[in-house]
Write a structure and sequence with these properties.
heterodimer; A: alpha+beta; MutS, DNA mismatch repair protein, domain I; Dna Ligase, domain 1; four-stranded antiparallel β-sheet; 15 helices; 20% strand; B: mainly beta
């Protein structure tokens, strides 16, 4: 039996939330963009009016202003978007418990087993569309199909505020006539390669045959072939919102930041690394895990960079230890010639903190457990009074120390695979 | 001409032991207050005119229906402002 998969996509999500809260701007071209002073000045979302001026997500503010001089620019308000994302998800959960979020504004819903309760996939899609419009004041486009890829395709097919059903009778008409770039995971590079072998539409891709595509693209060719024919059978993975929306076992925890200014000085590096490591260590402890490996990621002003990692003697969740290793890695590998634009700290090789740990003679276990107790106390204080209520002295006296890395931590859409 | 603006208001609320909230009195300006006679409907709803979203409580006040919104943690109403075109 075919499954019933819905893909719901909130149209111009950030911009729609903003125009709901700024009714006076509703009739003007509107875009949400990061703070140019912190060098995050790119367009994150835009409304339909701005779209008609060809303003694109990802371009710099000045580029957008060139196309549309009257463009209203608003700073992003993540707590607001998060609130609406949660509310939308609550509505989804009323129709099925199989909800897989794809970023803040998109989600797949497997409604196969709820059709007997709420009606056909299309009926559920229409209900959800109407409810979100009335209750949240936002518009969604919903795609209904028997697999995730076509459901997503359907939600992109007609927007805003629309439902598209792609079933076995009409998919050849709807999907196959569209350019191959509309398919999930066909980006500019794949599109170019496909064009070289004469494939411009999805229908053409489907007619290429498995072997030919495998020859051309390897494993990816097989995926593309399955996608084009609607053979993809990957399940909708219910996520646990309490565990940072992860359903797979968490393999690593990391934070990175593009700093407001390029870093060149010893003290600045120490400060940013300390703040990142602190956030990572706190998240690690929240999940009751210990980490074996500490990694750092550096991106220079010139946009190239490096990553380094080190395995520890024994797994740890102690802030001091993680900070210390991250600093060692950094100062052993950085030569102070090129200013640094982005820094990241990550831990991996995670094990449960319940697991017994092999002690070693180079570290003092009493000192470690004392540090762990101290960390837990600080975590507790921070959970009550905010992440910046208890701080390292290193982070004092610099404008950057106002950043709250843990709170601002945002989970971006993970890959489809 | 009439315009709508969002106005946060003081509300006296009765919390039922079931956890449900029952707004009772809306305080307006310094001296005015409105008694809510009956709650007709509660549902999540967006207020496009005022610019907000929350639980909409449709209330009967002095024989007329009015909506007040609980936008956690505050209450707001859609205030009508009369624009008199004759005054400059």
């Amino acid at each position: 039996m075919d499954r019933t998969i819905l893909h719901s996509d909130m149209n111009g999500f950030y911009a729609s939330c903003e125009s709901l809260y700024h009714p006076e701007l509703a009739s003007r071209p509107l875009a949400v963009a990061g703070d140019p002073q912190n060098r995050h000045g790119i367009i994150l979302a835009k409304n339909e009016l701005a779209k008609s001026f060809n303003v694109r997500t990802g371009e710099a503010i000045w580029q957008a202003k060139e196309k549309c001089p009257d463009l209203e620019i608003l700073r992003p308000n993540y707590p607001l978007y998060l609130r609406f994302s949660k509310k939308a998800r609550k509505i989804y959960y009323e129709y099925t418990d199989q909800v897989e979020a794809f970023g803040l504004d998109e989600a797949w819903l497997d409604c196969t087993n709820s059709e007997s309760l709420f009606g056909s996939g299309e009926t559920i899609a229409q209900t959800i569309r109407k409810r979100i419009k009335n209750e949240l004041g936002l518009t969604v486009s919903v795609g209904v199909s028997w697999n995730k890829i076509f459901a997503k395709f359907g939600s992109d097919y007609k927007k805003p505020d629309a439902v598209t059903v792609i079933d076995r009778n009409n998919y050849k008409n709807i999907v196959w006539s569209r350019p191959v770039g509309d398919l999930l995971y066909v980006g500019p590079a794949t599109k170019r390669k496909l064009k070289n072998i004469g494939v411009t539409t999805i229908g053409r891709l489907a007619s290429m045959g498995r072997d030919r595509l495998e020859l051309e693209f390897g494993k990816w060719g097989l995926f593309l072939y399955d996608f084009a024919l609607g053979l993809d059978d990957s399940p909708v993975q219910p996520l646990d919102p309490d565990a940072y929306d992860n359903y797979r076992p968490i393999k690593s925890i990391g934070n990175s930041t593009t700093t407001p200014r390029d870093l060149t000085k010893y003290g600045e590096f120490k400060l940013v690394i300390a703040m990142l490591a602190e956030s990572v260590a706190m998240r690690l402890r929240e999940l009751d895990c210990l980490a074996f490996v500490v990694e750092i990621e550096i991106r220079y002003k010139t946009l190239n960079g490096f990553t380094r990692q080190r395995k520890l003697l024994s797994p740890t969740d102690v802030t001091r230890k993680i900070t210390q290793v991250a600093e060692e890695l950094f100062f052993e590998n950085y030569d102070f010639t090129t200013p640094v634009r982005k820094l990241g700290v990550r831990v991996s090789g995670l094990i449960s903190s319940e697991r017994p740990v092999q002690l070693n003679i180079f570290e003092n276990p009493d000192k470690i457990s004392k540090e762990q107790r101290l960390d837990r106390t600080i975590d507790h204080l921070r959970s009550r009074y905010g992440n910046n209520s208890v701080r390292k002295a290193t982070t004092l006296g610099d404008s950057m120390s106002q950043m709250d890395i843990k709170k601002d931590n945002i989970i971006h859409p993970i890959g489809y695979f | 001409m009439e315009n709508i603006q969002k106005r946060y208001v003081d509300v006296l609320v009765l919390f039922r032991d079931s956890g449900q909230m029952e707004p009772k009195i809306i305080y307006w300006d310094e001296d005015k207050k409105f008694y809510i006679d009956k709650i007709l409907d509660i549902r999540p709803c967006a207020s496009r005119k005022a610019g907000g979203q929350g639980d909409r409580y449709l209330c009967l006040i002095n024989g007329r229906e009015h909506a007040i919104y609980f936008e956690d943690p505050a209450w707001f109403v859609e205030e009508r402002i009369k624009n008199n075109p004759k005054t400059f």
